[in-house]
Design brief:
It is a single chain. This protein is of the alpha+beta class and about 250 residues long. The chain is built from six helices and ten strands. It has a four-stranded antiparallel β-sheet with strand order 1-6-7-5, covered by helices on one side. A four-stranded antiparallel β-sheet has the order 2-3-4-8, covered by helices on one side. The protein has a two-stranded antiparallel ribbon with strand order 9-10. A hairpin with a 2-residue loop joins strand 6 and strand 7 (about 90-95). Helix 5 crosses helix 6. The chain is elongated and about 65 Å long. It starts with a helix and ends in a 13-residue tail after the last strand.
Length: about 250
Amino acid sequence: MPEGPSLVIWKEALAKFTGKKVTAAEGTVDIPVKELKGKKIIEIRTFGKELLIRFPAFTIRIHFMLFGTCLINERKETPPALRLSFGKQEVNLYTRTIRILHEPLDELYDWSADVLNPNWNAANARKKLRQHPDMLVCDALLNQKIFAGAGNIIKNEVLFRTRIHPATHISALPPAKLRQLVNDVVEYSFQFMEWKKEGVLKRNWQIHTKKTCPRCKIPVHKEYMGITKRRTFFCDSCQQLYKTKKK
């Protein structure tokens, strides 16, 4: 599943179409595609794992799910969910989750929850985490209401960097560790984006998909953990399992 940093990279690549009119539109998605012809894009934004293409009267909201992608002036063999043409240039969106939003985006989205947004608010994230004391950290980092844009790679890498075992409950984390966790999600997300642009993201993975812990030189555990049941890679030796103190 494309994570927030990948969406921001696509947004930056699509910026050249801001102010341009759609000259043709087609696709397999269940929205009034033909009506997009002649409409001018006024803004392209992202929220977490969502790409938002804003027109004067509505916004196209795209979620790429597990295997979706965005291609500019390139095509796959399969028909796109949505193709927007701008003269000789085109944008091809491959995913089934596309819908039209008519409400103002500021009414729909809490921008302070997006880890890559200038309005990100770490204090709000810590407050939300404390409201879910029984939540596992491996689930918390995938909760888009708390960390919009964070995905499974970010989850695994951040927990390894902060030396936190994924089965730790939020309530068990010392305040300083909770603060470190929140801050590192943002820091790593920006690093992720830079590495992705440079084509060296996988080269910089420390624990995700690895078989041996780079710190302890012992086998890495792989489990499908938490409510989300996403692949979780961790080291039992250097990632501490914090336990809630008994009252």
